Amino acid sequence: AQKVTQAQTEISVVEKEDVTLDCVYETRDTTYYLFWYKQPPSGELVFLIRRNSFDEQNEISGRYSWNFQKSTSSFNFTITASQVVDSAVYFCALKGSGSRLTFGEGTQLTVNP
Amino acid sequence: DTGVSQDPRHKITKRGQNVTFRCDPISEHNRLYWYRQTLGQGPEFLTYFQNEAQLEKSRLLSDRFSAERPKGSFSTLEIQRTEQGDSAMYLCASSLRVSTESEAFFGQGTRLTVV
To answer: How far is B7 from chain A (nearest CA, A)?
Structure first.
């Protein structure tokens, strides 16, 4: 069975603060993929990043960065200098040997001006 | 617009009625997925197609649910004899599977309310 845990249900920060969203996963598959999606109030899930299990390099894209640590089964997401437009629900997801994505329950991020 | 398109965006129906949703994936994508999302939860997998073949169904997909992708392009999801517990957002996604995994792109969803 696969499982994704996002322990932070809600996070509230003030604009320009850095914020890290945690994601811990469980899988028995040796090859798997991890994803982060953003869901703004409009409802559409927006793809942010994909990482496969063999690639533990951290990645930075503008204000976004991701820290993948296989040893702790974690794939955390950091937003630097947060902005009001970053307010959304963020989902971490896992795809193992099967076809389905297993999502965490999401973290509601609110960035206040 | 070349993204995943879903229709309708909102549907209100009376308990016991049948409803049908449509999904148009990104044109070159061979995989199509249906997920269901209830308030405050992450999306849950329902079913997926590789071209026109339905290859996997979740236990969440009761006998009242049926999905088709007749020509390997658009897909429909039908719910018969709707119940209040069916109220949710139904999300469609598509991806391209060649030799490696690719990310799934989601539509804006169909929000179903059963009254």
So the answer is: 13
**pLDDT tens-digit profile of B62-86?**
899 999 999 889 999 999 999 999 9
Per the model's pLDDT, the better-predicted residue between B27 and B20 turns out to be B20
* Residue environment code for A32-67, b if the CB has 16+ CB neighbours within 10 A, otherwise e: bbbbbbbbeeebbbebbbbbebeeeeeeeeeebbbb
Question: How many Cβ atoms are within 10 Å of B52's Cβ, its own excluded?
Answer: 14
Please indicate if any CB of chain A lies within 8 Å of the CB of B23: no
In angstroms, how far is CA B99 from the centroid of its own chain?
25
Chain A stretch 87-106, residues whose beta carbon is closer than 8 A to a beta carbon of chain B: 91, 93, 95, 98-106
